[in-house]
Amino acid sequence: MRRIKIKLAYDGGGFHGWQVQPGLPTIQGVLEEIIGGMEGRPVQVAGSGRTDAGVHALAQVAAFSLENPIPLPNLRRAINRLLPPSIRVLDAEEAAPEFHPRFDALAKTYEYRIYRGEVCPPFEWPYVHHYPYRLEEAHMAQLAGAFAGRHDFSAYAASDERDAEGQSKVRTIHHSTLERAPDRLIYRVRGSGFLKHMVRNIVGTLIEAGKGNLADLDRLPEKCGPTAPAKGLFLVGVEY
Predict the structure, then answer these.
(1) Which of 2, 5, 60, 116 is 20 to 30 Å from the Cα of 127, by its Cα?
(2) 48 lies in some domain
(3) Are residues 113 and 172 both part of a single domain?
(4) CA 175, CA 170: separation in Å to the nearest integer?
């Protein structure tokens, strides 16, 4: 049995997230259907994380086990030939039999894009949160730095079926910055792991700071702001 590790990119706009959901199109569901068809039996495809509905990925990592001896370049081409154009396998390699893309991950990096121009071009619209209104961007950048470090992010997590397991919601954020680029703000965060809606809730809180609704910008607010739209969020990379 071979363990195959793949890196893939996808436009999440037409999918209900990563995780399989009966009767709904998901990234995991499409991959399992295609790879299982090639193997002639059901194949479980594990991902590094469960991106939400509408969230995109530049370099998601997944893994699955196969008996099929097909060479890796041919496997990648065969999967891409059957995938919709909105999902592409960028790379495939052999991995250790016990490799798991989520449990073995050391860090992940996400990026959130806020378009600041008055008119958002239609080809930008599916991949940014358009917010043309007045914001104190320096306040947002100051608060972004406060998220770095080890914190309990319970207030920044949406309810999850894993909550019943009683797992800790403490996470370590290695890097948290908000930077200005032409016509947009880019929030980039790198951490040991992320909770459901955590990054989008952080971005919503940064926007509240920009609107002048938060006083103390040097520590995490006790309550998060409104959840930012999914379409501005990208999984940029996973480290092992």
Answers:
(1) 5
(2) yes
(3) yes
(4) 16
* Final residue in a domain of this structure, among 95, 115, 144: 95
Active-site residue, 52 included: yes
**What is the predicted pLDDT for the residue at 159?**
80
* 233 CB burial (10 A radius; 0-12, 13-18, 19+): buried
Q: From the first residue on, what is the mean pLDDT of each consecutive set of 10 residues in the chain (240 residues)?
A: 98 96 96 97 96 97 97 97 98 97 97 98 98 97 97 90 73 97 97 95 98 93 95 98
Q: pTM surpassing 0.85?
A: yes
Report residue 181 as tokens.
């680029």
State which residues form the domain around 59.
2-95
C-alpha closest to that of 12 among 35, 32, 28 = 28
What SS3 class is residue 125? helix
Q: Which helix (H) or strand (E) holds 107?
A: strand 107-115
d(C-alpha 81, C-alpha 127), whole Å: 25
Q: Calculate the CA 100 to chain-centre distance.
A: 17
Distance CA 177, CA 157 (A): 20
- Final residue in a domain of this structure, among 49, 70, 95: 95
Phi and psi torsions of 227, nearest 5°: -65, 125
DSSP string, 30-90: HHHHHHHHHHTS----EESS-PPTT-EEEEEEEEEEE-----HHHHHHHHHHHS-TTEEEE
Catalytic residue among 52, 91, 104, 218: 52
What's the pLDDT score for residue 167?
Answer: 81
